[in-house]
């Protein structure tokens, strides 16, 4: 395996490892904060972390390229996470976890249309079917898949928003900019779009709340881990593996969530769940052959 592909696979694996636990952290914070309050706070933390890691301005050669950052900030940061957080407030974490895994399918379709990418092979689509079947089995544990249809619909829209973000990141990756600075630049626009939303939905986060240890720990985990580190790693994975190939790693998110639910929350591990995890891994392998 070429070194650049190995780095891409490792980066994508790190992302799904962390992202697989973010549903739990977000659910905990939703007890005290609204979706926009969580969203804005975590990305401000992420932006500050990236700025401390790599200060300096991002300079693009053409004005058109700046719009790629605007679109990435809106689709992958503001829109995706806003839709996901509102979905979590209206349906189960398991439902959201399963639905957002259809993003690789959206990504493949859009990449074919917008980036003129090669048509995905049959193994990609078979892998999609097998992986989603496995995710459904995982999601249905203990009847967890029964949720609110509005939240489920928002999760579908979130999957589409992430697909658009992945395509824009592919375009940005071709500019050969510093990866950390480029990620931070997209964060800037994402936060910019969140500010008016905070005015509409309300923003009442006070320092005293953030200093409470459980709340602080969850925000730091989401802000530094899931935002700053994972977005840089994901952008690296997309650059090294390509838009579609990296996106199939999202199938693993429910499997990671399952693992930590069994380990930390002592949820039961049944044969059906094990079968679902196996199908998801097989689907990932099939789609990765594309």
From TrEMBL:
- Does the keyword Ribosomal protein feature in the UniProt annotation? no
| Swiss-Prot/TrEMBL keywords | Cell membrane, Membrane, Transmembrane, Transmembrane helix
The membrane topology of this protein is: Multi-pass membrane protein
Transmembrane helix in keyword set: yes
Q: What name does UniProt use for this protein?
A: DMT family transporter
Q: Which residue spans traverse the membrane?
A: 7-30, 36-53, 65-83, 95-115, 124-141, 153-174, 186-206, 218-236, 248-266, 272-288
PANTHER family attached to this UniProt entry? INNER MEMBRANE TRANSPORTER (PTHR32322), S-ADENOSYLMETHIONINE_S-ADENOSYLHOMOCYSTEINE TRANSPORTER (PTHR32322:SF18)
Family assignment? Belongs to the EamA transporter family.
Lineage: superkingdom: Bacteria
InterPro entries, alphabetized: AA-Vitamin_Transporters, EamA_dom, EmrE-like
Intracellular or extracellular location(s): Cell membrane
Annotated EamA domain ranges read 7-139, 150-286
